[in-house]
Amino acid sequence: MTGIFITMEGPDGAGKTTQAKLLGQYLTDRGRQVVFTREPGGTRISEAIRQLVLDPTYGEMADKTEILLYAAARAQHVRELIIPALEEGKVIICDRFIDSTLAYQGYGRGIDPALIKTVNEMAIQGVKPHLTLVFDLEPGEGLERIKERQKGEVDRLEGEGLAFHQRVRQGFLAIAREEEQRCKVVDARKSLEQVHRQVVQLVEAYLKG
Ligand code: TMP
Predict the structure, then answer these.
(1) Ligand 1: does its nearest atom lie under 6 Å from the Cβ of 99?
(2) Which pLDDT band, with edges at 50, 70 and 90, does 87 fall under?
(3) Strands 131-136 and 4-9, sheet pairing
(4) Can you tell me the distance from the alpha carbon of 2 to that of 138, in angstroms, rounded to the nearest whole number?
(5) By C-alpha distance, which of 133, 139, 134 is closest to 173?
(6) pTM for this entry
(7) What is the C-alpha R_g of the chain?
(8) Which ligand 1 atom is nearest residue 97's CA?
(9) Protein residue with least CA distance to atom 17, ligand 1
């Protein structure tokens, strides 16, 4: 597989999605074929699972159901979209991937990371990101940005308390420390242009090898 798989990770409201689009434009302008996608989502079935897993009315959802739903969405996404795009030599920019499960369900909910990895092995079929940008932001700030943008409406995960989101943030930072070759931390407090510059520098450094 000749493509490049870049994932964008970090707490809610850290600006990943906007930065993914800016990076996509930057790479397209330089002649790369870029595919944008997101998790949970990216395919018809995975988007249907997204609706289910983020629905705030399903407050009774068990932690293990949550893990399996994210993994199910991922299995379809990897099979239907990510592997074919990598085989076609494209650059995939994916808004969240397995690190989000480790951070939210592992660090946030306290599920054993070994269990998360076992469940996800089947879903990812050996596909791993080449580069992961971890957008770091104080969770309170991120949640404020989201509430403003969505006029107070939050999904099931965004609606978790601040302490949960603090653990998620620490989770992402721990993952970045453990896998410093693959994961690069981006300071998401900076302006849109400054963050974009950091992203471009990191991606260019990866591409130059
Ligand atoms: P998004 O709003 O950034 O697209 O992500 C959807 C929410 O789902 C976000 O709050 C993070 C959460 N999430 C998990 O809890 N586990 C996962 O594996 C993924 C991909 C997302």
Answers:
(1) no
(2) very high
(3) parallel
(4) 36
(5) 134
(6) 0.96
(7) 16
(8) 20
(9) 101
Does an H or E element contain 182, and which? none
Q: How far is 77 from 37, CA to CA, in rounded Å?
A: 9
N- to C-terminal Cα separation, the chain: 17
The rounded distance, in Å, linking the Cα atoms of 93 and 154 is 24
Average the pLDDT over 180-199 and give the result: 97
Residue 152, pLDDT above cutoff 90? no
- Domain architecture of the chain: domains with CATH: 4-207 (3.40.50.300)
What amino acid occupies position 156?
A: R
Mutation test of ligand 1: which of 16, 39, 50, 156 has the most ligand atoms closer than 8 Å to its C-beta? 39
CA dist., res. 136 & res. 133, Å (int):
9
33-80 pLDDT tens trace: 999 999 999 999 999 999 999 999 999 999 999 999 999 999 999 999
Nearest to 14 by CA among 196, 202, 189: 189
